[in-house]
Amino acid sequence: MVDSEFADTMQLIYQAGLDSEQWPAVLDRLGELLGASMTCLVRHDVATSEGAMVAVRADPEVARRYTEHYAKLNVFAQRAGNRPAGTCMTDRAVLSKQELFKTEFYADFLRPQDVHSILSVYVLPEDGTRVAFGRPHRSGEWEQEQIDLLRPFAPHLQRAALINLKLGASRLSEMSSAEALDRLAQGVILVDAESRPLFINRSASEILADVDGLCVDRFGLSADNPSQTATIRRMIAAVSNNSEAPAAGGAVGVLRRSMRRPLSVVIAPARVEPSWFYNQRPAAIVFVSDPERSARVPLYHLQQFYGLTPAEATVAIEVSRGRGLQAVAATLGITLATVRTHLQHVFEKTGTRRQAELVRLLAESNAGLRIDSSVPRGES
Questions:
Q1: pLDDT digits (tens, 9 = 90+) for 310-345
Q2: What SS3 class is residue 266?
Q3: What's the CA gap between 180 and 77, in Å, rounded?
Q4: Strands 250-254, 129-135: pairing kind
Q5: Residue 28 Ramachandran class (φ > 0 left, ψ -120 to 50 alpha, else beta)
Q6: Mean of the per-residue pLDDT values of the chain
Q7: Residue 7's pLDDT is what?
Q8: In Å, how far from its chain's centre is CA 294?
Q9: pTM above 0.70, yes or no
Q10: Which of 53, 135, 213, 246 could be a cystine partner for 63, CB 3.0 to 4.6 Å?
Q11: Torsion region of 128: left, alpha or beta (phi above 0 gives left; psi -120 to 50 gives alpha)
């Protein structure tokens, strides 16, 4: 292999690190360098024998058939288990050819693709991700020469995959509209099938921080009441196993050790697709509401909806919390007369006449959104 081929391949690998859609190009290039008849990016869960595949130089249906059926029959992956990242090995290192040829995996999956010998390089050992190369019968077995050719690429394949992992976590937040979710007064928690949180918005973080009704422990989302913990996790598991069911999910009134009113917890299916290297699929979205928390109205929404100045919007929010005008003045550090002037302008711009009407209007237009973390002080 000449230096230019190595450099071009390295460039492709790191492009795939930034964009997981580029992995087929990496597979094709490596397959070309090694003379493979089929090249695959394979994930194999040793515990469940479930797996997935991206394949090039092969029938387009190969990956689908592997995921749906043949992953569980992959004797090579089962025997090899998870090896350290960078490990390069052939099928002969874990089972004899006689054993391989007797398996359904070889007879019905490998042989129709003209794959007689397999060479693998482990990329992410935690989830059994590796790149596998198939060699046709006419070319014989993979030998040390090809292992030596592949080995220099191994650490770079791992780094590219790790970059994908980090970017995948960021993209989960993007797909979940993290910024928008953080503006909700309602708590939102994305969990996997084991009830482990993958994303928690700010409101949910505040509720969980109280450790009053709900918390996150090493087993995942938990309630103070063990029976309610079991109920919540059962609902999440049901959503994960049958997310298309119309009745999937449910609601729970979670009891609190403080004896305050129960938290309202609603569980529904979450349909956020993972990427190849970010394979934690959110199974459910958990909505959490605390009836003891007052409704919050975003400052900028009041300015946009009603044309209020920042000072007027701030006074409107303080008044909506049921505070007297003198208390509002003390909180904002302005005079009582200034508060009354701002409030009169708010009444005029919102079409209200009394504080009770204003509070009702703001509650109806709240839409469950938060106040910004930094609220501008009123103008004196």
A1: 999 899 888 877 778 998 999 899 999 999 999 999
A2: strand
A3: 42
A4: unpaired
A5: alpha
A6: 82
A7: 75
A8: 30
A9: no
A10: 53
A11: left
CA angle 254, 260, 263 (to 5 degrees): 30
Residue 78 CA neighbour count, 13 Å, CB half = 12
Range of the domain at 75: 3-169
Number of structural domains, the chain? 3
Contact 229, 223 (CB under 8 A): yes
Please tell me the distance from the alpha carbon of residue 353 to that of residue 346, in angstroms, as a whole number: 9
Tens of pLDDT along 60-93? 889 999 999 999 999 988 888 888 888 999 999 9
Domain harbouring 266, CATH code: 3.30.450.20
Same domain, 128 and 26: yes
Residue finishing a domain among 223, 254, 289: 289
User: Which stretches of the chain are assigned E, i.e. beta strand?
Assistant: 38-44, 51-56, 88-90, 117-124, 129-135, 187-191, 197-200, 214-217, 220-223, 250-254, 263-269, 284-289
Q: Mapping DSSP to helix (H, G, I), strand (E, B) and coil, where does residue 206 land? A: helix
Which residue, chain included where needed, has tokens 């970017």?
167
User: Which neighbouring-strand residues pair with 52?
Assistant: 43
If asked whether residues 64 and 38 sit together in one domain, one would say: yes
d(CA 131, CA 99): 22
In a domain, 374, yes or no: no
Distance between CA 85 and CA 125 in Å, rounded? 6
Instruction: Show the tokens assigned to 311.
Output: 């000072």
d(CA 335, CA 323): 15
